[in-house]
């Protein structure tokens, strides 16, 4: 069922036999499957529509929906769920789709729910990384209405973020504060929105992102800098939404890159595709791990698409590899579970 091409990428031999439910906040809906209307900032509808088109071009039998509850009624009608939901209307991490797929015994994109939850929690993921010997910024979580607003056990400057944010949500230049007075004001503003907060040491340097896909061993595709023109080269929500400055490939010949990938894979893998994000100081060579992203952008203009093009592959073929590997990861030989619906 799974082939490996000359470029080393996997593919599904008979894609027409695989019934995929594509789910995303702006996925095209039946019956016309047009791009969904969107009044906000960013390029989500275009991206989700492009992924829908790619899955179709690969030959899969694709149903598409922008409604997360569709999966509740999908048992027996689908073989695989390709979900790009990284936030839905539940508190904290989005694990509904993967957890329900486990309940249905249906294969799905990403990683098991426990790994997905750990990855989306920007505090817990750093606790895991630190336990594996990967350097992280010092940080303290502030749970709204529970954690006292006391000064953290480290000096500023501080970086204040949504503990469960996606796409740099709520990160602005106000996120960097030189002292606790300013940091406390930002925390209180986020608490007023119902947001749990993580306060960390602000780390000098640049953002670095490492793109990886699953395979027999994790396959490191490339290392990139998401370009920022903000003070301190902060990657704000505004920049992340449009990506109008793009990415710069880095020739970062540092042994820690592959080492970190292997350490996290050994602890949390296998994962279909993921991105490791860091703050890296080019002057000292020091890095601080920021997050593990399991539901990251896999389009042609981001690290995954750019790395595929560099290797002479297409974004379509890379997407096909991710689905093929995902099916291998979830082979249920010896599994006594039965489909519930």
Structure, explained:
This protein is an alpha+beta fold. The chain has nine helices and 15 strands. The chain has helices spanning 44-57, 96-104, 113-120, 124-131, 180-192, 237-242, 255-268, 303-310, 315-329, and strands spanning 2-4, 10-12, 19-23, 61-65, 80-83, 107-108, 139-142, 158-162, 176-177, 197-201, 206-213, 219-226, 247-249, 273-280, 287-293. The strands form four sheets. It has a five-stranded antiparallel β-sheet. The longest helix has 15 residues, at 315-329.
What labels would you give this structure?
341 residues; five-stranded antiparallel β-sheet; four-stranded parallel β-sheet; 15 strands
- The rounded distance between the terminal residues' Cα atoms is 25 Å
Q: Find the count of extended strands (DSSP E, 2+ residues).
A: 15
What characterizes the major β-sheet? 5 strands, antiparallel
Total helical elements: 9
> How much helicity do the residues have?
25-40%
**Assembly annotation:** single chain
Strand proportion, as a percent range, falls in 15-25%
H-E order: EEEHEEHEHHEEEHEEEHEHEEHH
Strand order of the largest sheet: 13-12-11-14-15
Point out poorly predicted stretches.
Answer: none
Shape label = globular
Rounded Rg: 20 Å
- Let me know the average pLDDT: 90
Structural class: alpha+beta
TL;DR of this structure?
With 341 residues, this protein is α+β, with helices and mostly antiparallel strands. Helix content is 28%, strand content 21%. The chain has 9 helices and 15 strands.
